[in-house]
Amino acid sequence: MTNISVTIQRAAAIPPPEPPRVIGFRGLHRIEGGRQPAYNSPGVIPPFDPTIKLAMTKDIQFMSYDLAAHFHPAIRSDRTKYRDIHGGAFAMNNGPWNGYDHPNDPHPLKDYVNNRDLDAPLPNYDKMQRTFAGSLITGRKEGSIILCTPGVDAIDARNFSYVPGTDEAKKILGEILTKRWYSYAVAEGETGVFKIRPQWGDGFIVFPFILDRPVSFESRFFVAWDETFAPEPLKVYL
Fold first, then answer.
1. Is 182 exposed, middle or buried (0-12, 13-18, 19+ CB in 10 A)?
2. Which of 44, 76, 174, 228 is deepest in the core (most CB within 10 A)?
3. Alpha carbons 194 and 189: distance in angstroms, whole number
4. Residue 1 maps to a domain
5. CB atoms within 10 A of CB 23
């Protein structure tokens, strides 16, 4: 009888892939030494240059609504809340000819989301395009500024096309979400950071990060971010 020796070798376990890195610049909160808005005011970080308006076209409005509705159930169930967060005395559309229903000087402005005043002028993001403390942007650091480029670091507003409900719109929204081309609306208070409109319940108000030309920000209001996770907008890290 012939004895046969069999050796069984177990294959080495394949290590899991490294999680993808989330790299960019996180807006510093007031308490971390970031921009110093008045207490209980929106923690916006305006661009350094240029500080010009961006017209909210029909396509931009519908994209902006779909993005906000993705993050906030209250906006998804009540489209008039979209109008509220783009008010003329709110964070991103300051001024009677920029946002809806300015309390001191109201003027009709096109509201495609709510099908109102379609013969009026377009609203505007009053400074293209602000971000918020706690949110993440990407860009190229050049000395004391961070330069952001449309289509690379932000939604490209040039010839922007968005027809809600179409496969192409779903693809565009998916790219915005994957690339984090949006900002969380937060306010800076004496006791810390809180989300704007907390009375609306669960969800975050979110605005698109959208440009029609390269825009720079002062790097002193940001800190480099390189982690396997995105920053939490309400968390103070420093």
1. buried
2. 44
3. 7
4. no
5. 11
Its domain, for residue 166, covers: 27-227
Query: Residue 53's Cα: distance from chain center in Å?
Result: 17
Q: pLDDT tens digits for 24-74?
A: 999 999 999 999 999 999 999 999 988 999 999 999 999 999 999 999 999
Beta-carbon-side half-sphere exposure of residue 84 (alpha carbons within 13 Å): 12
Would 13 be classed as within a structural domain? no
Beta bridge partners of 188: 41, 193
Query: What's the CA gap between 190 and 36, in Å, rounded?
Result: 11
Count CB neighbours of 220 within 10 A.
12
In the structure, what pLDDT confidence band is assigned to residue 12 with cuts at 50, 70 and 90?
low
Tokens 């946002």 locate to: 99
Q: Is residue 16 part of a domain?
A: no
173-186, pLDDT tens digit by residue?
999 999 999 999 99
pTM of this structure? 0.91
Inter-residue long-range contacts of 153-156, CB under 8 Å, 24+ positions, other chains counted: 153/181, 153/209, 153/211, 154/129, 154/181, 154/209, 154/210, 154/211, 154/215, 155/63, 155/181, 155/208, 155/209, 155/210, 155/211, 156/210, 156/211, 156/212
> Cα 5 to the chain's mean position, in Å?
65
Backbone torsions φ then ψ of 20, nearest 5 degrees: -65, 145
Q: Cα-Cα-Cα-Cα dihedral of 176, 177, 180, 186, to 10°? A: 110
21 lies in some domain: no
pLDDT value at 205 more than 80: yes
Domain count, the chain: 1
